[in-house]
Design brief:
alpha/beta; Rossmann fold; eight-stranded mixed β-sheet; four-stranded mixed β-sheet; 10 helices; about 30% helix; about 25% strand; carboxypeptidase; Cyanophycinase
């Protein structure tokens, strides 16, 4: 059996992201939240729940309070942030920096970033992940906020539509990607294609409801829950975006789509053999996801 000190060392050498597409089960088997607790260190972990994206923070907290209590977590507390002054409070930031698990709820990702982006609390989350190997989780808006480029707003109907989607700065736990949530349920393929069309440097990640992409820094990735993760890669794309009118549908050729259903797992550490049957562009993308320094 692994000792507590060994487990702590393993967490500190890695750290995890649990990126949830929203609508995760909080009442029955709680598979995703259970995995988040496990990666945070188990029921004895110190978990904080950041409700800054929500307009109803106390109600949102009560939902997760019940869920984490049901999972046996004895130390879990809310972080209600409604202003940048609060997010720059050093005592509060230290609480976050010392947490084993940090979970960001749903709501509005623009509200979340306007409140905590670039603050002491933001920096504390990065320290917790990189120095202590904490587990950072986020659902819905909290998931979108995890990347360096964040999908801020935009509504697209049946096909890509240039100029209909807008990006903003995110928290930067992952780079060179844009994350969309409630993906299959809200038919957001055209929206993510629009992002990739306008920003081929970025790759799109769409996560279904009650589904999570789990990223182990320096280790691997897995998909858990009941849905799938869709990856859009436009790096080899041929398009006429530059010559297409505003709000028109562009021509997009050779956009690559990868579908990773629940149960998908790739070991990607430096000493691991390359997964069989995985094309190099996808393998390069997955290896970039797990980098300990996402800015590189």
């Amino acid at each position: 059996m692994e000792s507590q000190s060994t487990a702590a060392t393993d967490r500190a050498s890695h750290g995890h992201l649990v990126i949830v597409g929203g609508g995760e089960d909080r009442e029955e088997d709680k598979q995703i939240l259970s995995r988040f607790v496990e990666l945070s260190g188990g029921p004895g972990a110190n978990i904080v729940v950041i409700t800054g994206a929500s307009q109803i923070p106390q109600e949102m907290w009560e939902v997760y309070d019940r869920a984490f209590t049901d999972l046996g977590v004895t130390e879990h507390t809310p972080i209600h942030i409604s202003s940048r002054a609060q997010a720059n409070d050093r005592e509060l930031a230290e609480r976050v920096a010392n947490a084993d698990g940090i979970f960001m709820t749903g709501g509005d990702q623009r509200r979340l970033l306007a409140t905590i982006g670039g603050t002491e609390l933001d920096a504390a989350m990065h320290r917790a992940l990189k120095v202590r190997g904490a587990c950072i989780g986020g659902t819905s808006a909290g998931a979108s906020a995890m990347s360096g480029h964040m999908l801020a707003d935009g509504h697209v109907e049946l096909q890509p539509e240039l100029g209909s989607v807008h990006l903003a700065a995110g928290l930067g736990f992952l780079q060179r990607v844009v994350i969309d949530q409630h993906f299959s349920e809200r038919h957001r393929l055209a929206r993510l294609l629009t992002v990739v069309a306008q920003n081929p440097y970025l790759q799109g990640i769409g996560i279904d409801e009650d589904t999570a992409l789990v990223v182990e820094r320096g280790g691997g990735i897995e998909v858990i829950g009941r849905g799938a993760v869709t990856i859009l890669d436009g790096r080899h794309m041929i398009s006429n975006v530059a010559d297409t009118a505003h709000r028109a549908c562009p021509q997009l050729i050779d956009v690559r789509l990868h579908l990773l259903p629940t149960g998908s797992r790739f070991e990607l550490s430096e000493d691991a053999a390359a997964p069989e049957g995985v094309p190099k562009p996808l393998l390069d993308f997955l290896r970039n996801l797990i980098k300990r320094n996402p800015m590189s």
